[in-house]
């Protein structure tokens, strides 16, 4: 057998803060000021990093699939070649150290207590399946009683709602939806609706086993006061809280210890410049169920803990999960790192949203302080968009 593979050389432009081990733990998710890059990325360099984008299309939808710069794609291609050059050596010697490097970078980025709290999975949809599967087994194995409640926001993502129904409602849960108004006016309004829905869920002494809370909903796009809602869940005796933060890293500061949920997932391929598909799932190591979570795809790592199970789900391309450090290097080439990027994105998107709303005589779907890097703007009446089907028609033409 050949010698163990080492991570491929980094030929990305040099920055001072190397490979993700020295990010601030503030946790604004940005580099510490002393470690800021020497030269801020230029406009020409940004254009070169995204020269593979279709020049004929002005991309305004970063929220669905994100975007990945050329320097990160190049690092990903080096990992792919390393794998294909000597698959046995890669799988048995290179893969796990590479994944550990990425997990350590994520742990530092989000303020995890320990790298063992961080698993890398494909996407937020997979993370939701992991949590919902555990809840379903809790019903099947009698830890939860038929009719115990699961609470979710009305604004929850469609696939996550379906996951709750496919796994948890099917296993016996009562699903209670938090009916959020549209447009939402304030964080206080969300908190009030959440409290009222918890009262409904707890009616007649029913136990609330799981609350599923978004950090940033996508349609409509709203930053949810997630930390406050987690505190309410603790006060009201909710067993555990899963935060679907598919959009959070790169749009809002993330400190998983401060937020205090049991399970917290964010994609890295939406707003953090990783290639599709990579997300993390954080589980508190002192949490009661972290050790009972399993990846829905069972492999020979079954029983060795979620981070290990997630790191080997059969033969596949793991390269997106191996370039988290290079994505961190990329964001740190910008003034203020990821914090600077998200501040500028927020300012720009609000400016553009207001401009469109004014031109079309419509309104924004949420107040600016509840927007990150996404904004919802009412479409002009002449387009006749009154339903999801109408919206799809406009999207596709
Ligand atoms: C709030 C929310 N949750 C989950 C997801 C699913 O993300 P993914 O498709 O990467 O699994 C999305 C996707 O846009 C989302 O907006």
From TrEMBL:
Keywords (A to Z) from UniProt: Pyridoxal phosphate
Endoplasmic reticulum listed as a keyword: no
Source taxon at top rank: Eukaryota
Stretches for region Disordered: 1-37
A Pfam family assignment: Aminotran_5
Domain Aminotransferase class V residues, every copy: 102-351
Bias type Pro residues, positions: 1-11
The protein's name: Aminotransferase class V domain-containing protein
Organism: Eleusine coracana subsp. coracana
């Amino acid at each position: 057998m050949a010698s163990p593979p080492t991570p491929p050389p980094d030929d990305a432009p040099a920055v001072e803060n190397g490979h993700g081990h020295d990010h601030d733990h503030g946790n604004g998710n940005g580099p510490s000021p002393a470690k800021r890059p020497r030269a801020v990325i230029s406009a020409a360099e940004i254009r070169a990093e995204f020269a593979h984008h279709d020049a004929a299309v002005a991309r305004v939808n970063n929220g669905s699939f994100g975007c990945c710069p050329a320097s990160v794609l190049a690092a990903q291609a080096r990992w792919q070649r390393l794998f294909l050059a000597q698959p046995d050596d890669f799988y048995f010697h290179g893969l796990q150290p590479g994944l550990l490097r990425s997990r350590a970078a994520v742990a530092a980025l989000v303020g995890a207590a320990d790298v063992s709290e961080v698993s890398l999975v494909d996407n937020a949809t997979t993370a939701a399946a992991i949590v919902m599967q555990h809840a379903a087994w809790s019903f099947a194995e009698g830890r939860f009683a038929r009719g115990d409640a699961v609470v979710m926001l009305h604004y929850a993502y469609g696939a996550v709602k379906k996951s709750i129904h496919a796994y948890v409602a099917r296993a016996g849960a009562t699903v209670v939806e938090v009916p959020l108004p549209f447009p939402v006016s304030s964080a206080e309004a969300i908190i009030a609706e959440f409290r009222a829905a918890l009262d409904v869920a707890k009616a007649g002494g029913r136990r609330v086993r799981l609350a599923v809370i978004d950090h940033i909903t996508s349609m409509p796009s709203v930053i949810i006061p997630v930390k406050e809602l987690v505190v309410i869940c603790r006060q009201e005796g909710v067993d555990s809280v899963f935060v679907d933060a598919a959009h959070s890293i790169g749009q809002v500061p993330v400190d998983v210890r401060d937020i205090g949920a049991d399970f917290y997932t964010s994609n890295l391929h939406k707003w953090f410049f990783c290639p599709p598909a990579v997300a993390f799932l954080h589980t508190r190591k002192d949490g009661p169920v972290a050790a009972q979570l399993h990846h829905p795809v069972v492999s020979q790592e079954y029983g060795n803990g979620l981070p290990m199970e997630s790191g080997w789900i059969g033969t596949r391309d793991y390269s997106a999960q191996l370039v988290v450090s290079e994505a961190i290097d990329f964001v740190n080439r910008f003034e203020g790192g990821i914090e600077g990027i998200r501040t500028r994105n927020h300012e720009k998107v609000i400016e553009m949203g207001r401009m469109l709303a004014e031109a079309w005589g419509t309104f924004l779907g949420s107040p600016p302080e509840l927007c990150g890097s996404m904004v919802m703007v009412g479409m002009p009446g002449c387009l006749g968009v009154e339903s999801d089907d109408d919206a799809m028609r406009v999207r596709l033409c």
